[in-house]
């Protein structure tokens, strides 16, 4: 497997020929437009003085043909650049998506990469890049101005520099307010999304008004920042307009003066005006393009860094199917932005086919341990291994074949029951789906749903009850005969029937020699596990056969009660 950074660099290497072609086409476009000034010169100095209609018609026809070709080339350039941008965007987004998912699973916000890819695309297909291609040919126009008279050349060069400075000023003046405003905007959107997603709680407890006030306060700040930015931009744009128009007049004025003195012809006045306008156009455009150019450059830098550090695709070998020996070696996990680890030096080993119960108080780190075992999080030190291979580095699709996971928040997706159990695998074998449901003891429950396996469950499984979600989630975990099962409180929403079904499912898992880790708060489930792990404040307080751990716990409890009794 190629490293992400190499693929990323290859995308831009592949774009190079397109860029060269676009530059060449830009040269021809500008070369074809250049004679416009010569046309003016000829018409004024020859046709008007001699009255030769034939010359006029011929000159005009030649010009029209040249412009037609220039227009055609310009369309061709835009069409090609848009295609290239689209192609690059698709490749970059595809490359970034696994990283975004990894980051999101690790609790980080991860959509930035996709936004970066989009802003690269916008720049590559937008007018900004076209301006960049046209800008160098301004030199051509300025050169002709110099030939007509050096004073005109100097004036336009100075004017172009002034416009460039104004473009830079514009960007600098609006950068901070715009950045701050969009950061607030993103936060506001996020809160709004949360409020709508948790509409049930919001409505029930009358939080709507308070949330609206919060939202409105934030919106006021955003508006103020946006206004500041647009005011500054408006003032600078006024200056730009002034500079641009003044230059136009000054060039014509100076040319007229020179013509009065007999230094240049009358035609040169019109020619200079046209040349100046063409030479300055890209610089004026720069104001509009500067931001997108800057965004694109930042996006490129950020993407490159992310791909450079990307850990996906480290493992290049396809590993053999594991037996299911799970070992944690002094694994320590600290989430980003926290000092103290949530899990500290977790060390234990399960043989293939063993069932482990994980117990501990709320917040002791049970769900975090489940995520660590599934390779959702990477331990900062130590390792989590399945048959000796580091789980976090295992390519996700490969690992997924051997793993089943039921998160504490079941997290089903919009679609049919069948799709959800098959993990959205398009060519899933119906037999495998039914087998998973049977192993999980959910087959009858599913058959009782309105359309059985084809029942649409709504976004996030919203049309199911919490218990139904949990049991279909269990079936999804059993799909594909995994070697390692991790169930995070699979019994949280289950009734008695569901409890019994779960116990049966665990027995079947054992019979199939699946290694099983079950997080639970219920004592009744613990009679069906081989080993027990008691987590206390992120550490293994006890680990071993159920009876031994239970005895140790009872002894500890007794000692604590005795100590309390002594205190009284
Ligand atoms: N992404 C995170 N960033 C910071 N802290 C976190 C994060 N995820 C969990 N924690 C903290 O880690 C601790 C353990 O959380 P965890 O969800 O593993 O507990 P748990 O044992 O599963 O609890 P429960 O029985 O309530 O499910 C908690 O104190 C929680 O606040
Ligand atoms: Mg939990």
Structural write-up:
The chain is α/β, with parallel strands linked by helices and 568 residues long. The chain has 2 domains: 4-309, ABC transporter transmembrane region fold (Up-down Bundle); 326-567, Rossmann fold (3-Layer(aba) Sandwich). It is 66% helix and 10% strand. The chain has helices at residues 4-33, 35-50, 53-105, 112-125, 127-134, 138-148, 150-197, 199-204, 208-260, 266-309, 366-373, 396-402, 417-421, 430-439, 443-447, 466-478, 496-511, 523-526, 546-567, and strands spanning 326-333, 343-350, 355-359, 381-386, 389-390, 403-406, 484-488, 515-519, 531-536, 539-545. The strands form 2 sheets. Strands 6-7-8-3-9-10 form a 6-stranded mixed β-sheet, with helices on both faces. Strands 2-1-4-5 form a 4-stranded antiparallel β-sheet, covered by helices on one side. Strand 4 and strand 5 (389-390) form a beta hairpin. Helix 1 runs antiparallel to helix 10, helix 2 (35-50) runs antiparallel to helix 3 and helix 4 (112-125) runs antiparallel to helix 10. The longest helix is centred in the first third of the chain and has 53 residues, at 53-105. The two termini are 67 Å apart. The structure holds adenosine-5'-triphosphate (ATP) and magnesium ion. Magnesium ion binds next to helix 11.
């Amino acid at each position: 497997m190629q490293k992400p950074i190499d693929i990323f660099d290859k995308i831009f290497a592949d774009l190079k020929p397109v860029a060269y072609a676009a530059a060449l086409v830009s040269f021809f476009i500008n070369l074809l437009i250049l004679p416009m000034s010569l046309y003016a010169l000829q018409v004024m100095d020859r046709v008007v003085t001699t009255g030769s209609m034939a010359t006029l018609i011929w000159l005009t026809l030649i010009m029209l043909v040249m412009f037609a070709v220039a227009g055609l080339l310009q369309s061709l350039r835009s069409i090609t650049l848009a295609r290239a941008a689209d192609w690059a965007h698709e490749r970059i987004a595809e490359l970034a998506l696994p990283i975004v998912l990894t980051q999101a699973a690790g609790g980080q916000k991860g959509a930035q990469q996709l936004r970066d890819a989009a802003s690269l695309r916008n720049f590559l297909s937008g007018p900004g890049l076209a301006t960049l291609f046209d800008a160098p040919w301004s030199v051509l126009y300025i050169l002709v101005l110099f030939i007509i008279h050096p004073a005109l050349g100097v004036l336009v060069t100075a004017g172009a520099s002034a416009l460039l400075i104004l473009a830079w000023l514009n960007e600098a003046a609006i950068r901070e307010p715009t950045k701050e405003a969009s950061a607030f905007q993103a936060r506001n959107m996020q809160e709004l999304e949360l409020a709508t997603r948790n509409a049930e709680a919001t409505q029930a407890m009358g939080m709507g008004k308070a949330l609206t006030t919060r939202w409105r306060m934030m919106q006021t700040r955003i508006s103020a920042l946006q206004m500041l930015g647009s005011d500054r931009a408006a003032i600078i744009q006024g200056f730009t307009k002034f500079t641009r128009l003044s230059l136009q007049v000054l060039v014509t004025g100076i040319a007229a003066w020179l013509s009065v003195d007999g230094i240049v012809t009358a035609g040169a006045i019109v020619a200079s005006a046209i040349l100046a306008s063409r030479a300055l156009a890209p610089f004026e455009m720069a104001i509009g393009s500067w931001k997108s150019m800057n965004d694109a450059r930042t996006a490129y830098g950020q993407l490159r860094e992310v791909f450079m550090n990307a850990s996906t695709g480290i493992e290049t070998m396809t590993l053999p199917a594991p037996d299911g020996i799970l070992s944690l070696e002094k694994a320590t996990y600290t989430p980003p932005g926290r000092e103290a680890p949530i899990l500290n030096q977790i060390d234990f080993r399960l043989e293939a086919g063993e069932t482990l119960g994980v117990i501990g108080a709320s917040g002791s780190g049970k769900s975090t341990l489940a995520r660590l075992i599934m390779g959702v999080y990477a331990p900062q030190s130590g390792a989590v291994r399945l048959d000796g291979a580091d789980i976090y580095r295992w390519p996700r699709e490969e690992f997924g074949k051997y793993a089943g996971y039921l998160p504490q928040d079941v997290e089903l997706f919009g679609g049919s029951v069948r799709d959800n159990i098959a993990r959205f695998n398009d060519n899933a074998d119906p037999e495998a789906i039914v087998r998973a449901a049977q192993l999980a003891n959910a087959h009858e429950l599913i058959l009782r749903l309105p359309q059985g396996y084809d029942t649409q469950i709504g976004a996030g499984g919203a049309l199911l009850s919490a218990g139904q979600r949990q049991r279909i989630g269990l079936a999804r975990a059993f799909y594909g005969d995994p070697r390692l099962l991790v169930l995070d409180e699979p019994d949280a929403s289950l009734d008695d029937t569901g409890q019994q079904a779960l116990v049966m499912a665990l027995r079947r898992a054992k019979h199939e020699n699946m290694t099983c880790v079950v997080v639970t708060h219920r004592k009744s489930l613990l009679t069906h596990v081989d080993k027990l792990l008691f987590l206390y404040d992120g550490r293994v307080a006890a680990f071993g056969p159920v009876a031994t751990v239970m005895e140790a716990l009872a002894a500890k409890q007794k000692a604590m009660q005795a100590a309390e009794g002594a205190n009284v």
